[in-house]
Write a structure and sequence with these properties.
The chain is α/β, with parallel strands linked by helices. The protein has one domain: TIM Barrel (Alpha-Beta Barrel), CATH 3.20.20.140. The two termini are 15 Å apart.
C-alpha cells in the first residue's frame, strides 16, 4: 500500500543532512508529498523542489506568525509563484493566537491571501491554533474560493469540526491523532465523513507515537493512516484509495 502526505516542510534545514536519502525513500514508498509554504524564504525553495522532483507538489503562503511585515510585494511574489503548475494551493495561512504576535496583522494578511486564492481559484490550506472561533467567523464572512480548502492539523473537537465541515472544508489529521490524551480529536475524526479527511505529517514537527521527541518525516504518515483506519474501521487499500481520492479532488491532481 502506497501513501501520500498532504502537508510537509521537507525544505527546512532539519532535513539538510539527509534530504537526498529521504527523498529516495519517499519516491519508493509514497505517491507524492505536498510541501507547504510558510513565508518568503520557503517560496523559492519549494519552487526548486517541485521542478526537481516529480513526487513533490507545493503551496505558497505566509504562516500567521510570519505576517509582521506582510505587504503587497509578498502578494506579488506569491502570484508569480502560482504560474508554476505544481503549486497547487495557497497556504498555510490563518490565525495563530498561541504566540505573542500582532493579531490585527494576522487578520490583514489572512484576508489578503484569501482574496488571492479566490482570484486564482486555488484551494486554501488553513493554519488555526487557539483561534477556532475567530477563524471560523472570519472565514465565513470572507468566503472561501470555489476550489475549497482544508483546516490543516485539525486539533479541536467535533463541535468545531462540524462548523468547518459545514463551510465545505476538509480536515487534515496528523501525528497528534495518535497521542494518548487526544480523545476529543479522535472523536472528531470518527464523526468526520471519510471523504473529507486528509492525511498529514507536518514534518519535521508533530511526530506520531512512537516517535515523539524525534524529527518527523513524510514516511511516518503510515502511522496516521493506521490510526485513521482503526478509528474509521476502513482498512488496507480502501483507506489508501479514499484518502488519495480526497487529496486529488481538493488539489486537482491526477496521480
Amino acid at each position: 500500500m502506497r501513501y501520500i502526505d498532504t502537508h510537509s516542510h521537507t525544505y527546512l534545514k532539519r532535513f539538510n543532512e539527509d534530504r537526498k536519502e529521504l527523498y529516495s525513500e519517499i519516491s519508493e514508498k509514497l505517491d507524492y508529498i505536498i510541501d507547504i509554504g510558510i513565508g518568503k524564504d520557503s517560496i523559492d525553495k519549494i519552487l526548486e523542489s517541485v521542478n526537481k522532483y516529480e513526487f513533490i507538489f507545493g503551496t505558497v503562503g505566509f504562516h500567521p506568525t510570519e505576517t509582521e511585515d506582510f505587504d503587497d510585494d509578498d502578494i506579488s511574489h506569491m502570484e508569480e509563484a502560482l504560474k508554476e503548475e505544481k503549486i497547487v494551493a495557497i497556504g498555510e495561512i490563518g490565525l495563530d493566537f498561541h504566540w505573542d504576535t500582532d493579531r490585527n496583522k494576522q487578520f490583514k494578511a489572512l484576508g489578503m491571501q484569501m482574496e488571492l486564492a479566490k482570484k486564482h481559484n486555488k484551494p486554501i490550506v488553513f493554519h488555526i491554533r487557539d483561534a477556532y472561533d475567530e477563524a471560523y467567523d472570519f472565514i465565513k464572512k470572507t468566503g472561501i474560493p470555489e476550489a475549497g480548502g482544508v483546516v490543516h492539523c485539525f486539533s479541536s473537537n467535533w463541535e468545531d469540526a462540524k462548523k468547518y465541515l459545514d463551510l465545505g472544508l476538509y480536515l487534515g489529521f496528523d501525528g497528534p491523532l495518535t497521542y494518548p490524551k487526544n480523545d476529543d480529536l479522535r472523536e472528531a475524526l470518527k464523526n468526520t465523513p471519510i471523504d473529507r479527511i486528509l492525511p498529514e505529517t507536518d514534518s519535521p514537527f508533530l511526530p506520531p507515537v512512537p516517535f515523539r521527541g524525534k524529527r518527523n518525516d513524510p514516511l511516518k504518515v503510515e502511522y496516521v493512516y493506521e490510526e485513521i483506519s482503526r478509528i474509521k474501521e476502513v482498512y488496507d487499500e480502501r483507506i489508501a484509495s479514499q484518502l488519495k481520492s480526497n487529496s486529488n479532488k481538493l488539489f486537482k491532481l491526477d496521480r
